[in-house]
Queue: 2 jobs
Job 1
Amino acid sequence: MKIQMLGTGSAFAKAFNNNNALLTVDGLNVLVDCGITAPKALYELGYSFNDLDAILITHIHADHIGGLEELAFQMKFIFGRKPILYLADALVGTLWENSLKGGLQQDPTETLEDFFDVRPLNEGVAHELVPGLSVELIATKHIPNKRSYSLLFNEFFFYSGDMVFDADLLDDLVDNRGVQVIFHDCQLHPPGVVHACLPQLLTLRQSVQERVYLMHYGDDQREFIGHTGHMSFIEQQKAYDLNPLTFARQFGIME
Ligand SMILES: O=c1ccn([C@@H]2O[C@@H]3COP(=O)(O)O[C@H]3[C@H]2O)c(=O)[nH]1
Ligand SMILES: [Zn+2]
Ligand SMILES: [Zn+2]
């Protein structure tokens, strides 16, 4: 199981692409979020939309769904197939009505299902996305009154959607659920109003920090290298082997 971030930037970053990930298991590719920069970021890594076996969406913000219109049009008019789209059942209606319908709908009868093979997921249970890759959606707080989900892959890998700091959840994942690797969004500067900020993440106990890898950061990320406690930055476009036992070694951290 491999992960390659198409981008590791915040919504407003310009030096980094949107925080979207490509997970590859036995040659099958699952795109986690498809933001505004995803079409070009995929192209730059040598992928076409047709190389994707499924897309999974965490929440409705442009840095996570802004590339879906181009993806849908290319899949329909160039590749002639419907891509599999996984998302929380609670997001299906709003993704179409409030985001995609205006651009995609050409005939008033068309719906999201005309463009995607929609697979609604209910939170709190594991679903198989492709053989060898399961996900459990965990509802996490981001913007008041806005649904957003974090992802627990194969029971050991927690990938935060955009979320506010929640030490209790991270402690529980490590202590009671066997989570070994945590990719977490990180706003470098306080206050952490809609994202966890670095000073908050630095209050996590060492045994949790050692599992945390930071993403969704701003353009001045370089100034923070060496100032992230026991946590490390994920680099965009670099492929990492997601073996729970040896993951840390790719950062020069021996366990
Ligand atoms: O109440 C709010 C709502 C939004 N925002 C900004 O808009 C961005 C939208 O994408 P994002 O969720 O990656 O990050 C968000 C923040 O940068 C904010 O600062 N406060
Ligand atoms: Zn975001
Ligand atoms: Zn967001």
Note: The chain has a mean pLDDT of 97.
Job 2
Amino acid sequence: MVLNPVISKLAGKLVVLASASPRRLEILRSAGLRFEVVPSWFKETLDKGLFKAPHEYAVETAKQKALEVARRMPFKHLKTPDIVIGADTIVSVDGMILEKPVDKHDAYRMLSSLSGKEHSVFTGVAIVLCHEKENEEVDYQLVDFYEETKVKFADLSEDMLWEYINSGEPMDKAGGYGIQALGGMLVEYVHGDFLNVVGFPLNHFCKQLHTQITPTASPAHKVCFYNSITKICRLLTLFIENLPIANFVSALPSTFPKTLQALFTASKLCLFDLLHSRPGLDAAQVAQEIKASEKGTECLLEACVSLGLLKSIEKVYENADLATDFLRSDAPFSLHGYLQHCNETMWPLFSHLESAVQEGTSQREKAFSKHMLQKTSSSSREGKLRFMKAMHSIAKITGKTIATAFDLSTYKSACDLGGCTGALAYEFAEAHPGLSVTVFDLPAVVELNEFFHPQHPDNRVSFVAGDFLKDELPKADLYILARILHDLPDEKVHILLSKIADACTAGCGLLLSEIFLDEDRRGPSRGLLQALSMSEGKQRSATEYSLLLKSHGFITAHIRHTDNLLDAMLFTLLQCFSDSAEILD
Ligand SMILES: Cc1cn([C@@H]2O[C@H](COP(=O)(O)OP(=O)(O)OP(=O)(O)O)[C@@H](O)[C@H]2O)c(=O)[nH]c1=O
């Protein structure tokens, strides 16, 4: 008997059912499985037209339900599950997909379309296996499958239909009926797994578990605490991107703008650099060094102490770990460049958000004086350098996570398109000893690279100047597109992807790194807030990126949601598409 050993394999693991369906709970409880129920917040709103077959829709919805819970739990429940189970049941008849009816008339429409006919019930199931890595990031491994059961309804008279609808039973059930209760009276035959119709294909599930789950012991309740680096990066970045992180700064949002400005000002005045090279200065000495008033400097120092950025012992100051690790300009994970960009570019732009929303146009002219327009313009050397410093900060913080997201051992050469200062390329070279990486970026960007000396230079990283929309791309087995696509208008996205597909041979890879929006576009906030400052591009979900890349011949191989600002997806080229008719809008 396969069931018992399978269920007992899960003993000691934190198993979570990402479903509010009482039937699923009952089926799995009766089988002896011990689990917690955390209903998914994923809204079943995927575009059905995008799926070739009904079961693909059910499987994708099940995946999204389970992934949403798997990703939410470490933050909201402070524990990482071992296994999350999601499911979605749909009824399919005459090419239509029927879900739960929205009202009685909808139930009538559904039931009358089933009357006297055979239909299919599909349940898509996703099992997400969560592996917490040493750095406490979580790796998600997905197993999915579906089960089909055929059901034939008797001819239903109007009276029967309305009597059944008025019983209230149809409302929370796919297709508007419950085969396990009154709805059983409408059914002439069932071919296949009965429990699949009720909402969960138990037999198929156990078979999958049997082959997919290895019986390694794991603590029942792993409490997820971020290690300090991940935590500080996250907090600081959320902080900068305007999210309510009440643990870090109390009494938000009233203190929020003041906190940000204190951070920006301290960073701009190089306070953290000064206290790194000369710890133990008092307010008067600091004031003298940064050429500022004594009173103002003292207020700023005290504010920074209250924010946990500085420490003070008997009126002398030194950097707290947070400042040492992230805020001094030469820290390995320095946010200095990014803070400067936020202060001098993002802040003025966002203070014109109201008119940006009203007019739907860039507010640069309004937000900046002539002098600042020049300083922040991407066509000026200073503006370019400023932007490069900001991108360099982000690449340093996210680089390792992206570079180690996938097994890339089959690739020998990579090309980071728009790779800017090479910060990401160096991470890839360090993480993959067999990989050479070419950074391809505009001549004016490559020229300025002398300002960014890598900590560990590596002769497997080289720079080639060119325009990825116009020039021939360097040959590589793997193309990297990190934070590029979201910023481009659709036509440029397609030009770039076509060029990559043309440069690739079958089996070549494409690694995409972006913020992936939740499928229902309810988060993450950092992606949706970033969209407010984008005039041309577009934020997309993982499914949208998959479909976009698929239209150029790339198929999704792996997805990684990293919780370190950027997510990543690895694609493989199946065949080369040069025909623009293949391109989806
Ligand atoms: C055909 C049929 C369906 N159902 C129920 O229909 C819901 C489908 O909806 P779902 O979207 O898959 O699930 P949900 O109930 O919204 O829960 P969740 O997993 O949180 O989305 C599930 O409940 C199933 O049992 C029955 O109880 N009996 C039947 O004969």
Note: Residues 228-334 form a domain with the Arc Repressor Mutant, subunit A fold (CATH 1.10.10.10).
